[in-house]
Design a protein that fits this description.
- Helices cover 32% and strands 27% of the residues.
- It has 301 residues and is of the alpha+beta class.
- The strands form 4 sheets. A 5-stranded antiparallel sheet has the order 14-13-12-15-16, sandwiched between helices.
- A hairpin with an 8-residue loop joins strand 9 and strand 10.
- The longest helix has 14 residues.
C-alpha cells in the first residue's frame, strides 16, 4: 500500500517508528508536513499539493497532528477523505476529541465515567462552580491545553477562586474538575486500536507532581486492566469515533473515570513499557480496513 504519515517532525520517535515498521511490512511510506500541504478544492478534481507538486493517491494516511495545528490539520485530513483516502483517524473524530468540553459532553451523554466537571464564563458564578464539583481541592484546565500545560491544582477554595478569576480575566475557556485524590498522582493510559485495547500502562507522576505526563518526569509500568476499565476505554474511543487513540483513565472510588481521549498518542512510552509492537498493530489495522471512501462518520458532527 501507499501510505502517508502526516507529521511536522520526521525525527520524532512515533513518526520514525511508524515509517520504519511500514517499510518493513512492504508498504511505500511517505512523511508529509501537514502545514506545508495546500489544497485544490474543486468538485471535478480535488487534490492535495505539496512542495509545488500534486501528491499521489494514497491508500491510507496516519494523522499525527499536534493540538496547535488542529484546525488546519483536520482540513488536510478532510481533503484526503474527500479524495477517497482511508484515514486511521477521521477529521471529525480528531476535532471532536480535541475539544475538551465537547468530548466531555459526548462521553457524559453515553454515561461513561467522568470526574465531576464544571464550565462557566462569568466570574459571578465562581463560588457555585467550585461548590458544584465538590469544592477544593480541584483541578482547573485550559480548554486548549495539552501535555499537562494549562492544568492547575488548587488546594484551597481561595486559591481556586483566584486561579479561575485570573483565567477568566484573560478570556480563557476553562474546565473545573474534582480532584481524584485516591488516584495518588497516577493515571492509566489505554492504547486502543480498532475495537481492542492492545496495551495499557500506569503512569505515576514525579514526587510532588500531580500530573503524570512522562515528559514531566513521570514513570510508567505495565498494568492489567479490570473489565470495567477495558470497557470504559473502548466505549470512550467509540464515542469519539477514533480508530487509534490513547484513553487516559483515573481509578476513583466510583470506578474508572476518563480524563482525556488522545487522537495522536505517543508510541515511545507505551512501546518501551509494554515491549509490544504497537506500530505494527497500527499497520495491521490499516491493512484490514483501508478501502476507498471507507469513512465511518460520514460527515457527522
Amino acid at each position: 500500500m501507499k501510505i502517508a504519515i502526516l507529521s511536522r517532525n520526521p525525527k520524532l520517535y512515533s513518526t520514525r517508528r511508524l515509517k520504519e515498521v511500514g517499510i518493513a511490512r512492504g508498504h511505500d511510506v511517505d512523511i508529509i508536513n501537514t502545514l506545508h500541504c495546500y489544497m485544490d478544492i474543486t468538485s471535478s478534481k480535488s487534490a492535495v499539493r505539496y512542495k509545488g507538486e500534486e501528491l499521489p493517491q494514497y491508500d491510507a494516511i496516519i494523522p499525527r497532528i499536534g493540538a496547535s495545528v488542529t484546525f488546519y490539520g483536520t482540513a488536510v485530513v478532510r481533503q484526503f477523505e474527500m479524495m477517497g483516502t482511508f484515514s486511521v483517524n477521521e477529521s471529525v473524530a480528531i476535532s471532536r476529541s480535541r475539544d475538551k468540553l465537547r468530548s466531555m459532553q459526548l462521553l457524559a451523554r453515553k454515561n461513561i465515567g467522568l470526574p465531576r466537571t464544571g464550565f462557566a464564563n462569568s466570574p459571578d458564578n465562581v463560588k457555585d462552580l467550585i461548590k458544584n464539583v465538590g469544592g477544593a481541592p480541584l483541578v482547573i484546565k485550559l480548554l486548549e491545553g495539552t501535555q499537562g500545560i494549562g492544568v492547575v491544582l488548587a488546594e484551597t477554595t481561595k486559591a481556586a477562586e483566584s486561579v479561575i478569576e485570573a483565567f477568566m480575566g484573560l478570556k480563557a475557556n476553562i474546565l473545573v474538575q474534582e480532584f481524584i485524590k485516591e488516584a495518588a498522582g497516577a493515571d492509566i493510559r489505554c492504547f486502543v486500536i480498532g475495537e481492542k485495547v492492545v496495551a495499557a500502562m500506569r503512569r505515576q507522576g514525579a514526587e510532588g507532581e500531580f500530573r503524570s505526563n512522562l515528559h514531566r518526569g513521570g514513570s510508567a509500568e505495565v498494568i492489567k486492566l479490570t473489565k470495567e476499565e477495558r470497557a470504559t476505554a473502548l466505549n470512550a474511543a467509540k464515542v469519539m469515533g477514533l480508530g487509534v487513540c490513547g484513553v487516559d483513565l483515573l481509578r476513583s472510588n466510583n470506578g474508572p473515570v476518563v480524563m482525556e481521549v488522545n487522537s495522536s498518542p505517543g508510541l515511545e512510552g507505551i512501546e518501551t513499557s509494554t515491549q509490544k509492537d504497537i506500530s505494527g498493530m497500527i499497520f495491521e489495522y490499516i491493512e484490514k480496513n483501508a478501502k476507498p471512501f471507507h469513512n465511518k462518520t460520514k460527515g457527522k458532527g
